Amino acid sequence: MKTLSAIIPTYNEEAYIERALLSVAFADEIIVVDSFSTDKTIDIVSTFDCKIVQRKFDNFSNQKNHALQFATCDWVLFVDADERIPYKLQSQILEAINSGKHSGYKLKFPHFFMNRFLYHHYNYVTRLVLRSDCHFEGSVHEKLIINGSIGKLDAPVLHYTYKGLQHYINKKDSYAWFQAEQMKKKGKKATYFHLAFKPFYRFFSSYILRGGFRDGVPGLAVAGINAYGVFSRYAKLILLQKGLK
């Protein structure tokens, strides 16, 4: 039987961390990498059988790469504090790591917004990997790099993504600045065409092509905010190009 380490990065997650830890209790080892929380996060984690690693935060990739050094099991599952691994997915994970079919797996993340999960707004993200020869790259939207094939597990992760409308919009804005700066470093240019076309296509893709209209008013809201996020990214890139920021 293959063994499994669960890694959870934290910073001031007292409202979420206990339920996250309970949902990964099926793992052989749990590692919490904390960015020196100032709330009760560590007190709560200390009541569980976990390894606690504290490190000053610089970016998401470095934080998770640091935690990887403390993992001792064959496989590693990366979980955020606001995520839950339900029983069906736990079974799929244990079956997958013992199957020998792939070196990693993408997990399904439906969005949680306006007090419901939006099953037509979802992403697949690589979160379950063989520990040997894997690492993260990127600063905000970090990417897990592995050697070998990647499969998919269909049971969803319960991810309480956004705490409200304003939180969702603020998150899009904060990411937009970082994305614009990264695009500028890569020599990419933004035009007014991008401001008009790119947001429209993101809305169309989210609401029509991916079936967001089936999620009712929350689906419409998410499609609109996603389009705003794209507009914000290119608007900020234009400001950077003109030296206005």
Describe this structure in a few short sentences.
This protein has helices at residues 17-23, 41-45, 60-68, 87-97, 165-185, 192-209, 216-241; strands at residues 4-10, 29-34, 51-54, 75-78, 83-84, 104-113, 116-130, 134-137, 143-146, 150-156, 158-159. With 245 residues, it is an alpha/beta fold.
Give the overall pLDDT as a whole number.
Answer: 89
CATH architecture of the largest domain: Alpha-Beta Complex
SS strand fraction: 25-35%
Written as H for each helix and E for each strand, in order along the chain, the element string is EHEHEHEEHEEEEEEHHH
Overall geometry = globular
Total of DSSP H or I helical runs spanning 4+ residues = 7
Count up the domains: 2
Low-pLDDT segments, ≥5 res:
none
Which class do the helix and strand fractions yield?
A: alpha/beta
DSSP helix fraction: 25-40%
> CATH fold name of the largest domain, please?
Spore Coat Polysaccharide Biosynthesis Protein SpsA, Chain A
CATH class of the largest domain: Alpha Beta
The total strand number stands at 11
Largest sheet data: 7 strands, mixed
How far is the N terminus from the C terminus? 55 Å
Please state how the strands of the largest beta sheet are arranged side by side.
3-2-1-4-7-6-10
Overall radius of gyration: 19 Å
Per CATH, the superfamily of the largest domain is Spore Coat Polysaccharide Biosynthesis Protein SpsA, Chain A
